[in-house]
Amino acid sequence: MDRNEFKRFFRACNPSKTIWIERPEDRDYYIDFTSVRGSDIVEQLGETISLLSPDPTCQLFTGHIGCGKSTELLRLKFELEKQGFVVVYIDTRDELEMGDVDVTDVLLAIAQKVLDTLEQQSLDLKPGYFNELLEQCVQFLLTPIELKAEMEFNPEISFLGAKMNLGKIVAKTKDSPQVRDRLRDYLEPKTNTLLQAINGDLIQPANVQLHKQGKEGLVIIIDSLDRVDNRKRPDDKSAVEYLFITRGEQLKELKCHVVYTIPLVLMFSNEREALKQRLGGGNAPMVLPMVPVKLADGQNCEKGLELLRQAILARAFPKLSPKERRDRITEVVDRPETLDLLCRISGGHVRNLLSLLFRCLQQSKQLPITRDRLEIAIRQERDDLMLAITELEWELLKKVSQTKKVTGEDQYQILLRSLFVFEYRTNEFGRWFDLNPLLEGAPELT
Fold first, then answer.
1. I want to staple 422 with a disulfide (CB 3.0 to 4.6 A). Which of 228, 239, 290, 292 is the partner?
2. Residues 87-102 pLDDT 10s
3. What is the DSSP letter of 58?
4. Centroid of chain to Cα 225
């Protein structure tokens, strides 16, 4: 592999890179793990939207951070667009301060991205009432906070005027806690009014015009809300329970198809049924599990391991067939067993798989990766992970290792959020939990 190919491989292995399957250059890197994850969740999400359209739907999607949710949601976007839907994809990390998120923040971010997308569709919308509401927000913000130089309001009651004004508000509220709190004070009592403005001036007129153009309608995918900080609120309720359960009925009121990512810990909350009814419309959240590297009975999952191997080899040889890639495996690692170790130690967590590989590439700066180099990277990752584990958590980890189960207790939720424990599902064994393989063999577990 020459220098240019190594550079391309290095970039493709960046664990922070999301595969946008609609891009031909990314599509070659995509590996479909559906056959070992128990079900095709993207197909289920898409079919629900297609079959129930034009009636609006609200669906919930979750899984471990880094397990591949964004890639799958972008596949959903790609598939729905092929069917004629107009899809608004929102990565909330770009629009919101994830350590401090409330309902009105989410709704404004959604409205901004809807406006951006509808502009690209050349729709003739006149969001008069919505823009009037934005003007009221800006005028409220201008005093006592001096923001006039930065937030001069566009007086044009038009699509463009709304887009410009909302962009300024969303950007300022993300950057400034003071502005964020003040805007919430104003909008919180008007949440239903804000919803009516978004629905009445943006979503519903857009759907009418899209149908006239022969389109299927509007779909909004809200990604990365699973990263909302789960801090305790002054009322002793967790931030995620407040956002998704207490305020869930309002988030569900958008008059189009919506898919929300939610934190995995909500699956173990005592309020799970309330979440299902208020935000999910009676439907349970769909969970994207890990890729199994071994089964609940301890046997290797060869099919899962092979797909993980291909996830690495496809980044090295994107234009080759799976068999042709396997024939060139020693150009990437010194021997096949090295790649197998990398796949097993990742636990089927795709970002962890790439993170370990990326660390090897950063340190060796060449291929093939040797077994010694990989073992050094594993030791470093293990040491970093174990620094955060408390004595109580070690005891909980022992129980998970023995029972393959996780309960709804708060301590167990920490194990999931910290990636100490992974969830797996297959048709043969159903659902089970197991330790992050980086922790296996730790003296604290004996």
1. 290
2. 999 999 999 999 999 9
3. E
4. 7
What are the pLDDT digits (tens) for 280-294? 988 999 999 999 999
Tens digit of each residue's pLDDT (9 = 90 or more) over 110-152: 999 999 898 888 888 888 888 888 888 877 877 655 454 455 5
Query: In angstroms, rounded to a whole number, what is the distance separating the alpha carbons of residues 175 and 105?
Result: 12
Span 295-301, average pLDDT: 93
Integer Cα distance of 329 and 316 in angstroms = 9
DSSP letter for each residue of 412-446: HHHHHHTTSEEEEEETTTEEEEEE-GGGTT-GGG-
- Give the Cα-Cα-Cα angle 306, 354, 427 (nearest 5 degrees): 40
Under 8 Å CB-to-CB from 188, ≥6 apart: which residues? 102, 104
Rg, C-alpha atoms of the chain: 24
Query: Does the model's pTM come out above 0.70?
Result: yes
What are the CA-CA distances from residue 240 to residues 275, 304, 390, 410, 423 (Å)?
Answer: 11, 32, 24, 13, 20
Residue whose entry in the numeric block shows the structure tokens 């990437």: 332
